[in-house]
Specification:
The complex is a heterodimer of chains A (about 675) and B (about 170). Chain A contains 20 helices and 9 strands. Chain A is α+β, with helices and mostly antiparallel strands and about 675 residues long. Chain A folds into 4 domains: about 170 residues, no CATH class; about 250 residues, no CATH class; about 120 residues, no CATH class; about 100 residues, Tick-borne Encephalitis virus Glycoprotein, domain 1. In chain A, the strands form 2 sheets. In chain A, strands 2-3-4-5-6 form a 5-stranded antiparallel β-sheet, with no helix packed on it. In chain A, strands 1-9-8-7 form a 4-stranded antiparallel β-sheet. In chain A, strand 2 and strand 3 form a beta hairpin. The C terminus of chain A is likely disordered. In chain B, about 60% of the residues lie in helices and about 0% in strands. The radius of gyration of chain B is 34 Å and the shape is rod-shaped. The chains are: A alpha+beta (about 675), B mainly alpha (about 170). Chains A and B meet through helix 9, helix 12, helix 13, strand 1 and strand 8 of A and helix 1 and helix 5 of B.
Chain lengths: ~675, ~170
């Protein structure tokens, strides 16, 4: 009954989204606040309806209602509760409902945003026309995706007869990081639908000004932060759950999430220029359209079955064609509108090539070229196979030769940007202020060259660039607080007076440097060793030795495991005991590995328990692989620092546009 | 009942893993020469496992990946250069086997596309910026009447000067 109710709620949401588009379009054309208000009500009701549908789906999973095909295919009575709930978004159908929930939810927030008064003044709400058009576009997007869910991927389809037991969720996905990874990732992907709607609305209205920039930036920033955390969690999951010791494989599906991230990063920088100077209007609109287009492209690539990837949902090509249709329709219409209207978007402040604006344009140049590289590398094998029939593989070596150099050049330029003035900057002055940071960064590179074995000049240069990013960002704060040039109390006073947005930028750029340090050290200096070990034997990786002490069979909630207890030893430090498992899930007949991780400062000692086998002299032994991953901690810490920077920026008072809704609520209560 | 099923499943699984010693999954034997082994390890990262989804033979646990690793090690031990090993792999399995596609007319766009994107997007942005500045410069200068009114407006304090114009910071 509840399941039928959920199916009905989803259908209702489809109708409400169409109503939202219709009412908003009519309201915009007749300048009718009543019709526009109706559209806003429809948007909120649509979000509520999808939320009910999603709740019904979770209910079916929690109660293990195997008469629902989706539950039978993805759940099992033995599964722990967390993964029963997470199973609701573990499949194509369920994750699509989550996608629609985020989309309509953001649509409702957009609909509730303050509008009217002071279309271009500070603190003014969204102009009526812009807001109503954006609500109409958001409604159109929602109705397309809900229609896709209802008519091709019904998550509530019944099975008759119902099986007694479910097929269970892929055990690789039964992991806390992966339970929260999709909601965050989707919130990021779909958050760009709002910037898309605002961009299309701006094109319809024919007006892009600083107020528009101020409206777009929080959405771009929030989506980018969520996407950053989502991708980081996914990468961390791949790192410790797949048991290969790697964290980024340039796998097509990883690339699919990386493209909107790059476009979003470019967008939030370009939106700064539009917000502050009114310049780059057309370019910012273009990036706002591009970010969500990449999100939809990602959805198509993951769900159509055109790609082979560890992450891909195995889905039939017919649904892929439908998604391609939605992608072509929305992106095609939006970019056609862009080509028609963008030339009319003029105005905005002028700037010299050497200026803050100029630096942000360079940032955009490198980020979009990077996104284009990832796009080429991801799609080229598909295009090549379709065009000539020959198959090629594009993997890490390609991106190391194309994407990495692009980013390294961008990183070298980055610290100078924040030190340049708007309109016309003083490059020589900026370089002088960065001289100390530059000198220290080179010293760090040299120190890295001496500290790590074997000696690798490229890796040392990479470490120097990472240090340059961190020190260069700090140099900007030091400059603004007059550190060491005035007394400490004055510096503290200045530091407190800095806007949160400035701290956010510093943290985000320094976080990038932290990530780079980890990525370079891990990639260049990791050591891997593997050997069949009998009880009491050891294997050596780098400075660490791992001894297999005992092996037990343990019983989990829905699996059996061979658990090895091992001691990690290093000369001069305390030995530590860790466990690594090889799990067998009877429900699906699959085997997974649960690695043992010994956190040693910034390093990981990463141990994988392998198969049981015999040693040459016929004794019982287990294959144990040990990875020593120097500075691996920084790879995941860096992006988290970047997201924290984004959150600080979001909290900046200057970004809080139209806070009246909350203020009004306080007054009313 | 559930427990019995689990135990049954466990015994089947353990028996299977004890039997899982077909020659294909024999443990890797590193080459004795450390330099040669390092070359082999570097090559493993560039070679795609033929049965997996986007995994290199360095990462893949599949039996065939073990065979391919052994093949690469044998060729290196017998004195082949890295390029010879790659050529041999391509001869057996085609371009698909290498994660680094060859540079040939069909892949020029792939290899030079990023540079093209950089120059293209850079060109568009530079041209638009230049045009805007040129347009602004071409506009007629203020007439004496306009200059007088501008000075009046600025002097009256009705218009704030651009706060961003002088400060190097926000």
């Amino acid at each position: 009954m509840i399941v039928e109710f959920g199916a009905f709620a989803l259908l209702l949401a489809f109708g409400l989204s169409i109503l939202q588009t219709g009412l908003a379009t009519a309201g915009r054309m007749r300048f009718s606040p009543v019709l526009a208000g109706g559209a806003q009500g429809a948007a909120i009701a649509a979000a509520a309806a999808v939320a009910l549908a999603f709740a019904a789906l979770i209910f079916a999973f929690v109660t293990s209602d195997f008469s629902v095909a989706n539950v039978a295919n993805n759940s099992h009575t033995d599964k722990p509760m967390l993964y029963k709930v997470a199973g609701a978004w573990g499949s194509h159908e369920g994750s699509l409902v989550l996608w629609c929930l985020v989309m309509t939810g953001f649509g409702a927030v957009l609909a509730r945003a303050r509008s009217g008064a002071g279309s271009d003044g500070a603190g003014g709400g969204l102009p009526f026309g812009l807001k109503t058009s954006a609500v109409a576009v958001q409604g159109a997007l929602s109705s397309l995706f809900i229609a896709f869910a209802v008519f091709t991927s019904n998550p509530f389809a019944r099975l008759d007869p119902a099986p007694f037991q479910g097929a269970s969720l892929n055990p690789l996905l039964q992991d806390p990081a992966l339970a929260v990874h999709p909601p965050l990732l989707y919130a990021g992907y779909v958050g760009f639908s709002v910037t898309f709607s605002l961009a299309v609305a701006a094109l319809i209205e024919g007006r892009v000004d600083t107020a528009w920039g101020r409206w777009v930036r929080p959405w771009a920033l929030a989506s980018w932060v969520l996407l950053t955390i989502g991708i980081t969690l996914g990468s961390f999951w791949a790192y410790y759950e797949l048991g290969w010791g790697g964290w980024w494989f340039w796998d097509p599906v990883e690339n699919a999430s990386f493209m909107p991230w790059l476009a979003g990063a470019a967008l939030l920088h370009s939106a700064v220029v539009t917000e502050r100077r009114g310049a780059l209007a057309g370019w910012t609109v273009f990036l706002a359209l591009l970010a969500f287009t990449f999100s939809m492209l990602g959805a198509f690539l993951v769900r159509s079955g055109v790609l082979t990837s560890v992450h891909a949902f195995a889905v039939d090509p017919e649904r892929g064609l439908m998604l391609l249709g939605i992608l072509g329709l929305t992106a095609g219409a939006a970019f056609a509108l862009f080509a028609w209207r963008a030339p009319k978007l003029t105005g905005g402040g002028l700037f010299a090539p050497i200026s803050r604006e100029g630096a942000l344009v360079l940032n955009n140049l490198f980020l979009t070229a990077g996104a284009a590289t990832v796009l080429l590398g991801t799609l080229y094998p598909l295009i090549m196979e379709a065009a000539t029939g020959s198959t090629i593989s594009v993997g890490p070596p390609y991106f190391a030769l194309t994407f990495t150099p692009l980013m390294l050049v961008a990183f070298l330029i980055l610290p100078a940007g924040p030190l340049l003035a708007w309109k016309r900057g003083d490059l020589k002055g900026a370089m002088q202020r960065l001289a100390v940071a530059g000198g220290l960064a080179i010293a760090c590179g040299l120190a890295g060259w001496l500290a790590f074995e074997p000696k690798k000049a490229m890796a040392a240069a990479g470490l120097a660039v990472g240090a340059w990013l961190i020190l260069g960002s700090l140099a900007e704060v030091a400059e603004r607080t007059r550190l060491f040039r005035v007394d400490l109390a004055e510096t503290m006073r200045r530091a407190r007076a800095l806007p949160l947005g400035a701290w956010g930028m510093t943290l985000a750029h320094a976080g990038l440097g932290v990530f780079l340090l980890g990525a370079v050290a891990e990639t260049a200096f990791k050591v891997e060793a593997g050997a069949p070990l009998a009880l009491g034997d050891s294997v050596q990786a780098g400075a660490y030795s791992v001894r297999l002490d005992s092996v037990h069979i343990i019983e989990g909630p829905n699996y059996l495991a061979e658990q090895g207890r091992m001691t990690v030893e290093r000369a001069g430090s305390r030995p530590r005991t860790i466990t690594a498992e090889r799990r067998f899930f009877p429900a699906g007949g699959q085997t997974t590995t649960e690695i043992g991780l010994d956190f040693r400062g910034l390093d990981d000692v990463y141990v994988v328990m392998g198969e049981r086998r015999a040693t040459p002299d016929k004794a019982q032994a287990w294959t144990v692989r040990v990875h020593w991953n120097p500075w691996a901690r920084l790879i995941f810490l860096g992006p988290l620092i970047m997201s924290l920077g984004g959150v600080l920026s979001l909290m900046d008072r200057r970004l809080r546009v139209g806070p009246a809704v909350r203020r009004k609520a306080v007054v009313a209560s | 009942m559930k427990r019995m099923l689990l135990i049954a499943a466990a015994s089947v699984w353990l028996a299977a893993s004890a039997l899982a010693q077909e020659p294909g999954s024999a443990p890797d034997q590193p080459l004795a020469d450390a330099g040669q082994e390092a070359r082999a390890q570097a090559l493993f990262n560039d070679v795609r496992c033929v049965v997996c989804q986007h995994e290199s033979i360095a990462d893949s646990p599949a039996g065939i990946a073990g065979d391919m690793r052994r093949l690469v090690r044998e060729e290196i031990a017998s004195g082949s250069s890295d390029d010879q090993v790659r050529a041999d792999l391509v001869r057996r399995w085609g371009d698909y086997i290498l994660f680094k596609p060859p540079v040939e007319p069909g892949t020029w766009l792939l290899w030079f596309g990023p540079l093209l994107a950089l120059v293209g997007v850079g060109g568009i942005l530079a041209w638009r910026g230049w045009k805007k500045r040129a347009d602004a410069a071409a506009e007629a200068p203020l007439s004496p009447e306009e200059t007088r009114r501008l000075e009046e407006l600025l002097a009256s304090g009705a218009v704030r000067p651009d706060p961003d114009a002088s400060s190097s910071h926000d």
